[in-house]
Amino acid sequence: MIQSGGVGSVVQYHSREVALIMKDGGEIWTREPIIDLVFDIIEECGAPCAEISLITE
């Protein structure tokens, strides 16, 4: 989902829960196995992820 270009922002919580807030207003919730892994994925994504807002708890 992150690499699709449809994500507007990502919210990461200390509990490792992650909310993907889609550009169309939808939300997808997941839990990452390792804290900050979602930020590594966004960094590796490149241009499709360049506009994603990153929010941490």
Overall description:
By secondary structure, this protein is α+β, with helices and mostly antiparallel strands. The protein has a single domain, classed as 2-Layer Sandwich (Signal recognition particle alu RNA binding heterodimer, srp9/1). 16% of the residues lie in helices and 37% in strands. The chain contains 1 helix and 4 strands. A 4-stranded mixed sheet has the order 3-2-1-4, with no helix packed on it. The longest helix has 9 residues, at 37-45.
SSE inventory with pairings:
Elements: E1 7-12, E2 17-22, E3 27-31, H1 37-45, E4 53-56
Parallel strand pairs: 1-4
Antiparallel strand pairs: 1-2, 2-3
What are the salient characteristics of this protein?
57 residues; alpha+beta; Signal recognition particle alu RNA binding heterodimer, srp9/1; 4-stranded mixed beta sheet; 1 helix
What's the CATH topology name? Signal recognition particle alu RNA binding heterodimer, srp9/1
Shape: globular
Radius of gyration: 10 Å
- What is the β-strand count? 4
Poorly predicted runs of 5 or more residues = none
N→C terminal distance: 22 Å
Q: From the helix content, strand content and strand pairing, which structural class follows?
A: alpha+beta
Following the backbone from N to C, one meets helices and strands in this order, namely EEEHE
Write down the CATH class: Alpha Beta
Q: Tell me, rounded to a whole number, the average pLDDT.
A: 95
